[in-house]
TrEMBL record:
PANTHER family assigned to the protein according to its UniProt record, in alphabetical order: GEPHYRIN, MOLYBDOPTERIN BIOSYNTHESIS PROTEIN
Gene Ontology biological process: Mo-molybdopterin cofactor biosynthetic process
Domain MoaB/Mog: 187-332
UniProt KW rRNA processing keyword: no
GO cellular component terms, semicolon-separated: cytosol
InterPro entries associated with the record: MoaB/Mog-like_dom_sf, MoaB/Mog_dom, MoeA-like, MoeA_C_domain_IV, MoeA_C_domain_IV_sf, MoeA_linker/N, MoeA_linker/N_sf
SUPFAM superfamilies for this protein: MoeA C-terminal domain-like (SSF63867), MoeA N-terminal region -like (SSF63882), Molybdenum cofactor biosynthesis proteins (SSF53218)
Taxonomic source organism: Pseudonocardia ammonioxydans
The protein, known as: Molybdopterin molybdenumtransferase
Length: 416
């Protein structure tokens, strides 16, 4: 079988599939409702109780027998004794005797025998006796048991992404916890002898390390968990030692994926490439820009192995590659129904040229009201300040060499 580099560059789709194939579906864990936000439901949720669980009042007013009030009006009120007072939460509701009414609050159980609620506004609000000035239809303002859902009905199916309404529903049917798909755990490790931690003084020739922090945040925003390791210089032995120490465990903090940045290009001192070539990780080109040099595979750690995706070091390349390959793979692994970013079509404001044979992701700002997108910065893969102003990626197909002002382009929405 030919290797990736011999076979020529991969397409974005091919490399995305290769990275996704490294991650199996994650298992299930049970979390309290408050921690379920954004998680993917692992099993169908069925209703433990009907909703509403009992017939109850939709209004503050009086529970009545509708037939006893036929003909009641402003000019011909009907007066009846108030036999009971029913606040919400009352559990010992007496049956309604004929010829009486019960004062009732919203959410209180409708007493047996009553078949309608008269809102307090259509009465004199009496507490011993009450004058009623409207004739209710049978069933008026009664919220029927089970009209929202019956007990046992499937309310949410496995694969649903849980947000506030879904978690509220789980609570409403009495669930304190939910089974959700486990988040993949990602170790993030940057490489480069030029890197200095933010906060430290910079020597000439040094730069602040930014990819590690940026990628760890991106991993968490994708819904996975990240452990950011301290970056290592371009030293194969140091790099290998960190991986052997941190990636080969068998405990619960064992990573599902190791994500590296830097050290995968064609130069000398390509520490990631040098340390992993021949140990299960393949390196080659993807026909894209930025983010051409890539690698992925299962790194052999002697008796065990770990999934690895190696991203290039230029900050824009790193994040664009993350968006194209890693984010969708992580989300697919945790069962997310829509692993990819939403893509919309927008009209380009300005013109762009793009290299033939490479799919290009330019950084853009979308104006949703006019449906136009404008580039921020230029194609340079080091322009992190422009990246930070962008809210989308403009996806230019490999065959595209120029786009005219006003032409439609595909746009990946990043800020959702
Ligand atoms: P490399 O892929 O290691 O050849 O790096 C390509 C470019 O990205 C170089 O200009 C590096 O200095 C820069 N770079 C690499 N890693 C990082 C990082 N972790 N943070 C910021 N810049 C980086
Ligand atoms: Mg480097």
């Amino acid at each position: 079988m030919s290797t990736w580099s011999e076979a020529g560059p991969r397409t974005v789709e091919q490399h995305a599939a290769a990275v996704a194939a490294l991650l199996g579906p994650t298992g299930t864990e049970t979390v309290p409702l408050a921690d379920a936000s954004g998680r993917v439901l692992a099993e169908d949720l069925s209703a433990g109780v009907a909703l509403p669980p009992f017939d109850n009042s939709a209004m503050d007013g009086y529970a009545v027998r509708a037939a006893e009030l036929a003909g009641a009006s402003e000019s011909a009120p009907v007066e009846l004794p108030v036999a009971a007072d029913l606040p919400a939460g009352r559990t010992d509701v007496p049956a309604l005797e004929p010829g009486t009414v019960a004062r009732i609050m919203t959410g209180a159980p409708v007493p047996e025998g009553a078949d309608a609620i008269v809102p307090v506004e259509r009465t004199d609000a009496g507490t011993e006796r009450v004058r009623i000035t409207a004739a209710p239809e049978p069933g008026a303002f009664v919220r029927r048991a089970g009209e929202d859902t019956t007990a046992g009905a499937v309310l949410l199916t496995a694969g649903t992404v849980l947000g506030a309404p879904q978690i509220g529903l789980a609570a409403a049917v009495g669930r304190p916890v939910l089974p959700v798909r486990r988040r993949p755990h990602v170790l993030v490790l940057s490489t480069g002898s030029e890197l200095v931690a933010p906060g430290e003084p910079l020597q000439p020739g040094q730069i602040y390390e930014s990819n590690g922090t940026m990628l760890a945040v991106a991993v968490r925003e994708a819904g996975a968990t990240a452990e950011l390791l301290s970056f290592v210089p371009d030293d194969v032995e140091r790099f290998r030692a960190v991986l052997a120490d941190r990636a080969s465990g068998t405990g619960p903090d064992r990573p599902d994926l190791v994500l590296t940045s830097g050290g995968v290009s064609a130069g000398a001192y390509e520490v990631v490439k040098d340390a992993m070539t021949g140990h299960g990780v393949e390196f080659g080109k993807v026909a894209m820009q930025p983010g051409g040099p890539q690698g992925c595979g299962r790194l052999d750690l002697g008796g065990t192995s770990v999934a690895v995706a190696t991203l290039p070091g230029n900050p824009v390349s790193s994040l664009v590659s993350f968006e194209a390959f890693v984010r969708p793979a992580l989300r697919a692994a945790m069962g997310h129904p829509a692993p990819a970013r939403p893509v919309v079509s927008a009209r380009l404001a300005g013109e762009l040229s793009s290299p033939a044979g490479k799919r290009q992701f330019r950084r853009g700002v979308l104006d949703a009201t006019t449906g136009t997108v404008a580039e921020v910065g230029t194609a340079g893969s080091h322009l992190i300040a422009a990246l930070a102003r962008a809210d989308c990626l403009i996806d230019l197909p490999a065959a595209t060499t120029s786009v005219a002002d006003g032409e439609p382009v595909a746009v990946w929405l990043l800020d959702t």
